[in-house]
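Possible regression after last week's pipeline update?

I re-ran a chain I had predicted before the update to compare outputs. Posting the input and the new output here so someone can diff against the archived version. Not blocking, just want to make sure nothing changed silently.
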Amino acid sequence: MSAEAMDFVDRARQGWEISRPDLDVSSIEVMGRIGRIGALASHHAGRALQSAEITRAEFDVLCTLARGEGPLRASEVTAATMLSGASTTKNAERLVKRGLIERLPWERDGRVVLMRLTAKGEELIDREFPRFLETDAAMLAGLTANERTQLAALLRKVALTVEALT
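New output (post-update):
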């Protein structure tokens, strides 16, 4: 493989094969790339959201509420976003202050607070989510529709296996 065709993971694997030839490092071909692509995609999304003055974590909270079927408990938002409970609380506080979400009491249990988007939050999602999808599409532009379908199916298999381990 030519040096120009090598990505970061190829170079990392090559380094490990030299420094630790006793280890099978082939898993980084997939898992290393998944992690690196995830980090790079998150970075791109964060930069794209700067104009909306919102962080990627806040955007994830808003998106979770936008696709929910009504108000959600903080624990449901935490599970969906994979943020810590403390991070969900901090993000929710900032979003409430900006008028993007509101907190509601849950009639079944007064100790539980529900969250839902406000009209202002819905407007932000309506404006920013299509831009988010455009960024995703740009990152996948090197793949054909068939390759995207195949990749999605393979990644789903990996995700199901990893989710079963947790």
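Follow-up from reviewer: compared with the archived run. The chain has a mean pLDDT of 92. Marking as no regression found.
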